[in-house]
Amino acid sequence: MRVGVVFPHQEIGNDPAHIAAYAQAAEDLGYAHVVAYDHVVGADPAGRPSSWRGVYTHRDAFHEPFVLFGYLAAVTKRIELAFGIVILPQRQTILVAKQAASLDVLSRGRVRLGVAIGWNHVEYEALGMAWRDRAKRIEEQIHVMRLLWTNEVVDYTGRWHRIDRAGINPLPIQRPIPLWMGADEEIAVKRVARLADGWFSHLTPDETGRAGLERFRGYVREAGRDPGRIGVEGRVPATGTPDDWTRRALAFREMGMTHLEFRTGGSRLPDLDAHIDAMRRFREAAPVF
Q1: What is the predicted pLDDT for the residue at 285?
Q2: Which domains does the chain have, with CATH numbers?
Q3: What is the mean predicted confidence (pLDDT) over 39-52?
Q4: Is residue 50 over pLDDT 90?
Q5: Quick check: 177 and 125 in contact, CB under 8 A?
Q6: β partners of residue 163
Q7: Do 82 and 73 touch, CB atoms closer than 8 A?
Q8: Smallest Cα–Cα separation from 279: which of 79, 112, 15?
Q9: pLDDT in tens, 133-169
Q10: Residue 204 in 3-state DSSP?
Q11: What is the Cα gyration radius of the chain?
Q12: Which of 8, 59, 97, 275 could pair with 145 in a Cys bridge, judged by C-beta atoms 3.0 to 4.6 Å apart?
């Protein structure tokens, strides 16, 4: 099982030295990857309808993941740069393909691109992108990006894209770049099973999570694919004690997870040193590395 960490966007602050120190500590401790989230703008919840349930607001900081990972690629050597996830339908497909390819080249093949459709219509509107067709559009976007990553010249006509004998240069080191997806709703989980190389899941390390994982594997088989070739990532939050962290990690390994992420954010840790210390304690306590 490959074990990584989740970059603590909301808590790490804006000091480039702190950001570099977090990633370098993760790499030095033997973590395999660092996961970063994506939100371009946050919505002010004041005055919105009661139906609006934002997970994050304008008060939550998010470093733009392509810029963040470009910086981290320069200050690390081995750690994988995992987008978990980019809200793909609110971005220009060809530009995302180009950015991911460029990052893959500059990081010497360390990119894993996770994508999903997101939940915040305010963000889509601000970026000038349609909200209602995002689920269908992401399927074409994935197809187009894989074409661009594996061909010097692409001639493609789809519902939302037209590429008239053009290509990106340089092509990525990985051809194609591993493309994972995030999903919670059952219809979205089925989309992951059909299209993705892996799933950034929110499964829990218990019988409910085990059942969800088995359903996912069933969807993969229904799509004519081998579940053994599709990765699944679980998450261990840094809440409770190191023994609690270890129990969750071992349960995920026993379930058959291929990847694990340790999330120090959201645990009320006071500063950078405390985040790094939590990473160290998990590394020492959990026999899953």
Answers
A1: 96
A2: 32-182 (3.20.20.30), 183-289 (no CATH)
A3: 91
A4: no
A5: no
A6: 156
A7: no
A8: 79
A9: 999 999 999 999 999 999 999 999 999 999 999 999 9
A10: coil
A11: 19
A12: 97
